[in-house]
């Protein structure tokens, strides 16, 4: 069995260069590839196009890349918690493509499955659908959306093995799984890395065929984006 383990984030991100298109998994601040993002910051690569459900917050996640002006374009669904993102977008420093969340997920999944494009009703009759081919199916109008083309996909899993098989936990399953295999190279960072064959095959969410590199991450903060607690009674 092929061992896809690399010893560090530095080795995992070898080949990342200026101007590339990157996918980054996670939902809000849950299940984001913190170590890979930190390495991107350290590398100083710039003019990146980043595909991610959200853009992090001002001092965490993709917000760190935005602070360093490393991102040229964001392709996202939700970006409401990042003041620096708002400033760059309104000033014209940052290109932004806002996509319905389901369409964003499906464009990743289509790339993973090798499907070049698909029709969806989401966005028809709005700015999202302007300039796109449209067709009627079963009495309802749909627009044509194309699968993403990305150079690297960075995902974060709870547990993985040396062959690249992955298990996600909770809300981290929202975007990480569909980004696996949706780029030329998929890099997975995991909290726990075990020898190949130790994971229960029935528990595996993503098979190793979709992953090219895997490494064990460390020092995860696991921040809560909007912490809400009950008042004392």
TrEMBL record:
Judging by the UniProt lineage, the source's domain of life is: Bacteria
Q: Which SUPFAM superfamilies match?
A: NagB/RpiA/CoA transferase-like
What SMART domains would the database entry show?
Answer: CoA_trans
Molecular functions (GO terms): CoA-transferase activity
Instruction: Keywords in alphabetical order, please.
Output: Transferase
Question: Which Pfam family, any one, appears in the UniProt record?
Answer: CoA_trans
The portions of this protein that span the membrane are none
Q: Which family is this sequence assigned to?
A: Belongs to the 3-oxoacid CoA-transferase subunit A family.
The record's NCBIfam families line, in alphabetical order, gives: pcaI_scoA_fam
Q: What is this protein called?
A: CoA transferase subunit A
Q: Which organism is it from?
A: Robertkochia marina
Q: What is the phylogenetic placement of the source species in the record?
A: Bacteria, Pseudomonadati, Bacteroidota, Flavobacteriia, Flavobacteriales
